[in-house]
Amino acid sequence: MSSYTGSTALKFFLFPYITGKKWEARTVNRVLHNKAYTGITYFGRTTGKDHKKTNEDTWHVLTDVTPAIISQELFEQAQSALAKLRGLHSGKAKHEYPLTGFVVCEKCGSSLIGSCLRGNYRYYHCRGTYLTASRAKICDAHYIRADWLEEVVWDKVKSVLSQPELLLAEVGKQVENEKAHYSTGTMDKEIK
Ligand SMILES: [Zn+2]
Q1: Predicted pLDDT of residue 111
Q2: CB distance 183 to 131 below 8 Å
Q3: Measured in angstroms, how far is the CA atom of residue 112 from the centroid of ligand 1?
Q4: How many whole angstroms from 141 Cα to the centroid of ligand 1?
Q5: What angle, rounded to 10 degrees, do the helices at 5-19 and 25-33 form?
């Protein structure tokens, strides 16, 4: 026996809503992956009492069975966002450094760049610690564990976002700074 995954998914979708239980990552994940929300229902996705998954090319597409709650486009955006997230947690992701270009060294002001040590651990470290063709090594800052730094920055970002007045104050400061910067004739110099 096959089952309509559209309707079971809908029950599943409503479940935490009805019961008032917490949304679990697994539930959200199933919702995000279920095409039923785009109005496409598959017949025969599972088989038997134990709902064993069947091969995708044996599924039948039923249109107009479930109402489209989200657009196909949004569904695809969700899929690519999920794929990206999966990437972040896979082996490949160890080499991603989202803070590159956003953080500078406290000691010398050079930008921090990411690197992987012993093939496994992600770190950020100061560009100034490198000898380059045009200058000597200018900094002795230590390596910073990427997981730690990203968590610290993320916590800060979250706290700023949860207090819009902080954000507004920062934007205000920036605007003032720029005004001061340009009123001292710096703009003329820059244009020259
Ligand atoms: Zn430095």
Answers
A1: 93
A2: no
A3: 8
A4: 5
A5: 150
**Separation between Cα atoms, residue 36 and residue 27, nearest integer Å:** 15
- Ligand 1 centroid–CA 130 distance in Å is 9
| pLDDT, tens digit (0-9, with 9 covering 90-100), for 153-162 | 888 888 877 8
> Which tokens is 62 given?
């039923």
- Through-space distance between the first and last CA atoms of the chain, rounded to whole angstroms: 78
In 3D space, the residue among 137, 147, 151 whose CA is nearest the CA of residue 105 turns out to be: 137
Going from the Cα of 169 to the center of ligand 1, the distance in angstroms, rounded, reads 29
* Ligand 1 centroid, distance to 160 Cα (angstroms): 26
Query: pLDDT (tens digit, 9 = 90+) per residue, 135-152?
Result: 899 999 999 999 999 999
Instruction: Tell me phi and psi for residue 134, to 5 degrees.
Output: -100, -10
Domain boundaries along the sequence of the chain: 2-89, 93-149, 162-192
What's the CA gap between 159 and 163, in Å, rounded? 6
CA of 119 to the centre of ligand 1 (A): 23
